[in-house]
């Protein structure tokens, strides 16, 4: 099998139109790919289409995209009512909840709809691509395509081949990433791949540091940005990613490494998740948000 990622009539199905799905849809339509948006939550795909159209319009206002290119990209955003509308797509990218059972069940539903040569990619942050594909009729067509938030600005993507992934899938995802202006980096199918494995040294250690009372979270952010040169502090990053995504990622990496102590998640994120302090998306995480402005809550 093969997929010509450069074909001008490429159609991509995007399942899960939250933070990541929107970003992926934006870079895809900007690169001339038609995108069909599908979400399990009624109204969510339409909301996502409007949000992506708004982002493209902003780029046009700033002169980063011509008016014609903006109109053409926006016209390539299509709404799907259900997975059944993905029958014509050449490639599907899923960006739904980070839960292995839910992703596995989505794979089965997708396989019942799409063509036998359709590539299926998962944007999972931490789960095993091999396990996500395990129940598939054709697991060889499933690969990892792990973008970073915010997708249009973070111009790198991890391309992951699982145990059963066929070579053409990795090659096609690599080519598709380049077409969308992103630099692909190949990674082995291991817990957290590259970034979320190495990132434990940043996020998990910073949480330990705060848990041990070495510094408060805002001080840790300030010093890690100012002295260590990171663009965002670990707590700013947790607020951007949102704890309903990052805490399960931390748990999943810990479990997949057989409770390796250095990956142990923090009770701090578990209790803040339970309290609904997810981050920017709920208006309060470690910081409180007034639009884009972050303040330290009293
Ligand atoms: P999100 O919560 O913003 O969006 C998830 C969307 O999926 C929601 O619109 C929800 O209604 C929909 N959904 C949930 N279950 C569904 C199902 N069974 N079928 C169809 N739609 C369904 O989540 P976000 O942040 O976009 O994350 C999505 C995926 O991307 C996760 O696997 C996450 O680990 C991964 N990821 C997240 C990053 C981040 O910084 N937020 C970074 C890189 C990867």
UniProtKB/TrEMBL annotation:
Residues 192-289 form the 3-hydroxyacyl-CoA dehydrogenase C-terminal domain. It is an enzyme of class 1 (oxidoreductase). It comes from the Bacteria. GO terms for biological process: fatty acid metabolic process. Residues 13-190 form the 3-hydroxyacyl-CoA dehydrogenase NAD binding domain. The keyword Oxidoreductase applies. One of its GO terms (molecular function) is 3-hydroxybutyryl-CoA dehydrogenase activity. Its EC number is 1.1.1.157. Keywords: Oxidoreductase. This is 3-hydroxy-acyl-CoA dehydrogenase. It comes from Paramagnetospirillum caucaseum. The chain holds residues 1 to 298 of 506 of the full protein.
